[in-house]
Amino acid sequence: MTPSTTIPSTQPASGPLPADWRDLFALTKPRVMSLVIFTGLCGLIAAPERIHPVLAFTAILCIAMGAGGAAALNQWWEADIDAGMKRTAKRPLPQGRLDRTTARDFAGVLCAVSVFLMGFAVGWLPAAILAISIVYYALIYTVWLKPRTPQNIVIGGGAGAFPPLIGWVAATGEITTMPILLFAIIFMWTPPHFWALALFVKSDYAKVGIPMMPVVAGEKSTRRQILIYAVLLLPLTMVPWWIGGTGAVYGISALVLSSLFLLLSIRVGLRTRGEEDTMKPEKQLFAYSVLYLFALFAALVLDRFVVI
Ligand code: HEM
Ligand SMILES: CC(C)=CCC/C(C)=C/CC/C(C)=C/COP(=O)(O)OP(=O)(O)O
């Protein structure tokens, strides 16, 4: 599948539409990216070194632009797939509110500016990691992995795990154990986060032929795998405390938050659903997964300022 062969059906015949800023903004997946940016910001604040507030703001702006640009490239590539799924059919490209060329150019400018601004203003190491995460999401995950393997989001999850690492490296200029642990935590969190959602939108993915885990391996196997990742996530979130990278504020918060994550995952992992099932536990796990990551990273920052 290439965009050029499948997307024209969603496009108007009379040439480019005037770009509405609301549609361009929607192209950046702002709700998802708010957590991506938040984890990047927390990585930057939790790092042991301080940079000038203007540079810190620039680094976060670059993460936001890079993540938004990558999300826009994802939608540019997948406009036909999005058109076929209930959850995504109202996006600007499938609706024909925005033309493909504008979307592609907007995405390209965001990605390029984010990397070069990060490089010139903050440092070339965070810029290089930002470039890798953009390529990872827009190319490796979206174009290569997503249509091919049910392990797409396990391997592809690496893309979303980079922002706290980028924030930390923007502040310190080096990759150390702590930012690698933050990367690992998001990497381990991604499968339960996404598969909880995939369980209740399974038919959407089946309809457009995307081999998400519940479609390919079935619900039972997906539930078991959610549980495995949640079991591993709990001790992993404790490691920053055990190695002395954080204090008790983070450690206790991580224990409570991850225990609840595990409990909700056990409920999803061990159940078989009936005909009229509304998938409430799966929806709760998905909603909690978002709240969980916000709270975990907030605790990381709080830990820097509150010592008990
Ligand atoms: C490969 C990795 C990931 C996949 C496949 C994935 C997939 C999804 C999907 C399909 C949704 C529903 C969003 C929608 O309907 O537009 C969603 C929601 C969300 N995701 Fe993820 N996600 C991934 C990683 C991440 C990461 C790394 C973060 C942040 C650190 C994140 C944050 C969120 C948030 C905040 C929402 C809720 C958005 C809302 O309230 O509408 N996701 N995710
Ligand atoms: C700095 C940088 C580049 C960060 C990237 C962050 C990142 C990879 C986030 C992934 C989150 C996301 C929107 C996944 C959606 O999957 P999907 O695209 O398959 O979902 P869809 O079906 O809603 O389009």
From TrEMBL:
Presence of keyword Magnesium: no
Pfam family, one: UbiA
Main localization category: membrane
Subcellular location: Cell membrane
Transmembrane segments: 30-47, 54-77, 107-140, 152-171, 177-201, 226-243, 249-270, 285-302
This protein's pathway: Porphyrin-containing compound metabolism; heme O biosynthesis; heme O from protoheme: step 1/1
Catalytic activity: heme b + (2E,6E)-farnesyl diphosphate + H2O = Fe(II)-heme o + diphosphate
Protein's membrane topology: Multi-pass membrane protein
Cellular component GO terms held in the UniProt record: plasma membrane
E.C. designation(s): 2.5.1.141
Keyword terms, alphabetized: Cell membrane, Heme biosynthesis, Membrane, Transferase, Transmembrane, Transmembrane helix
PANTHER family: 4-HYDROXYBENZOATE SOLANESYLTRANSFERASE, PROTOHEME IX FARNESYLTRANSFERASE, MITOCHONDRIAL
Note from the entry: Carbon 2 of the heme B porphyrin ring is defined according to the Fischer nomenclature.
Protein task: Converts heme B (protoheme IX) to heme O by substitution of the vinyl group on carbon 2 of heme B porphyrin ring with a hydroxyethyl farnesyl side group.
Similarity comment: family membership: Belongs to the UbiA prenyltransferase family. Protoheme IX farnesyltransferase subfamily.
Entry protein name: Protoheme IX farnesyltransferase
Organism: Novosphingobium aureum
Designated gene of the protein: ctaB
